[in-house]
Amino acid sequence: MYxxxxxxxxxxxxxxxxxxxxxxxxxxxGLMTLKARGVRSRSSRLKGACQLLAYSEFTYFDYRGxxxxxxxxxxxxxxxxxxxxxxxxxxxxxxxVAEAVSQEDAPSDEVLSLTLNALYxxxxxxxxxxxxxxxxxxxxxxxxxxxxxxxxxxxxxxxEANCFNVSLGTIQCAACSDAEHNGIRLPIGQGTLSAMxxxxxxxxxxxxxxxxxxxxxxxxxxxxxxxxxTQFERGFSALDFYKSLTSLL
Length: 249
Known about the structure:
By secondary structure, the chain is an alpha+beta fold. The protein contains seven helices and eight strands, in the order E-E-E-E-E-H-H-H-E-E-H-E-H-H-H.
């Protein structure tokens, strides 16, 4: 029996002489492993749709314990990423994080939509990479269950803050941050706090539709990255590589 699904290829592993095992993020089934037979040969008709970062429609069937691709049609290959090493490295970080928060047999509509929107933004929205990265990091942390408390200081109730506790996921006002010493805290201004609230609350089709000053963007980027890696309690090799590239600029 043939089945169909649409998915984004997050990872590929060489298998036997000319096959690949693809880790694919789908809306309805979460993570799936699909076998692409002969895809590494020059004449394979599957090659374009079965490359890393391609979003494709797959027709597959069960063969010797593998979900094996019979046909694959590319929907979006995000080909622009392959012309820009920095963008490609950042996209690789996005899909590495997406894989970390996804599971097999668990619907992943929100994570898939966010990742596709982030890849689209990298390719076609002409937005700063730092902004796209920060939006992705904070929003995917929310989808993973680490929704920050940004409404008010949990100690005194003030809606103005001068720091964000990345360990607790809470904002803190000046008086309470002086008194409270638990966790890792990073300074934030009102512009950064407003941007964080926008990212968390805005509908998914509009999360990249804002602009901030360079100073706010630097602060926002530091907070969002630190919050994600702190809450996930792990690092990401693709993030390290991306940062090694951008540090050369």
